[in-house]
Design goal:
- This protein is mostly helical.
- The chain is built from 10 helices and no strands.
- Helix 1 crosses helix 4.
- The protein is elongated and about 60 Å long.
- The C terminus is likely disordered.
Length: about 200
């Protein structure tokens, strides 16, 4: 719907304190027409939430993370490659930050969804392979996840330089994370062992 697309761009630029009157003017419609589709600004923000957050969540990600026929490192790299492609956009980052600063429940709901649908199965896999004396905790995984997301925040919120290709940075972060819990990626199924020709 065009109104939702206009709202995504508008709130990404001005923050969630922006008014429906200004949004309608910018979208070239009347405020009355906007309210024919959405009973309140809260309803409109729910539609923005669905478009920006939920619609970008690929349904196959939990299965990818739990697929033990593939090495854990490979799964994590594949997931974060797709995840960052989905969220490293001006609209996603700006609305996420604006909603957090405004104390909106939207962020909490999204982060709970990420925790339950993505990080919980990933945590189970990490614990399955961890062999060191230090056991991984969910806060460790949030630190990895947050560090990866921060690349997008630096790019789209702070407008600071970031690598054009963030995957080498993400791969190194994953390698450090796995090594920290004595997860030997070379010993996992499907990982070649020894020097390759």
């Amino acid at each position: 719907m065009q109104i939702v697309e206009a709202a995504v761009g508008y709130f990404a630029e001005v923050g969630l304190a922006g008014t429906t009157r200004d949004l309608a003017k910018r979208a070239g419609i009347t405020q009355a027409l906007l309210y024919q589709y959405f009973r309140s600004k809260t309803d409109l923000l729910e539609a923005v939430f669905a478009r920006v957050y939920l619609d970008r969540m690929a349904p196959h990600w939990p299965g990818l993370l739990k697929d033990r026929s593939r090495p854990l490192r490979e799964r994590m790299i594949a997931f974060y490659g797709e995840y960052t492609l989905a969220i490293f956009t001006y609209e996603w980052m700006r609305i996420f930050m604006a909603a957090g600063l405004a104390g909106e429940a939207l962020n909490r709901r999204y982060l709970e969804h990420v925790r339950d649908v993505l990080l919980a199965p990933l945590m189970e896999e990490i614990c399955h392979y961890a062999r060191g004396p230090i056991r991984p905790e969910v806060e460790d995984l949030w630190n990895l996840h947050g560090g990866i997301v921060y690349l997008g925040i630096r790019r789209h919120v702070y407008h600071l330089p970031t690598p054009d290709d963030v995957m080498p940075v993400i791969e190194r972060a994953i390698d450090r994370f796995l090594a920290g819990f004595s997860i030997d990626v070379a010993a996992l199924p499907g990982v070649p062992k020894g020097p390759q020709p």
